[in-house]
Amino acid sequence: MKRLIIVRHAKSSWEYDVIDHQRPLKNRGRNDALLVSNEFKSYNLKPEIIFSSDAERAKKTAEIFKKVLEIEDSLFLLKPELYDFSGIELLKFIKSIPEDLNFIMIFGHNHAITAFVNEFGNKYTGNVPTSGLTMIEFDIDSWSQLRKGKTVMSIYPRDLK
Known about the structure:
Elements lengths: L1 E7 L18 H15 L7 E4 L3 H14 L6 E3 L9 H8 L7 E6 L3 H9 L12 E6 L11 E6 L6
């Protein structure tokens, strides 16, 4: 059994004249990430490792979750290949995760996140909102065997306000 928590980065700001990769979070984004991470913490679930896109908005979202979930720095890895919008690199990345990791958390970007959740979960969710978290369980022994799983949890900021 493999479990994946997949999170779309929090709401980012367009206020600054920076390249897309460097866009920071809005205050609303930070607040929503805190709201969702604290709700997730209440389930007493802790991933073995966190992988995040190295884009500023994804990295900062992941750092909020890392702090709230009390994940060690050594278990927090930035992965440039997760700066992916199509979902092709996201899927390749997940299928390449070492077999010994069973419970992972990934932070990334839309369209990739929504496409993955709708294709590999068993509940159609439409659009995963910013700071949206979905957990999917897979009845597989290796990530390379990835196939449709069971959506066991979705936490969206709008449902907590």
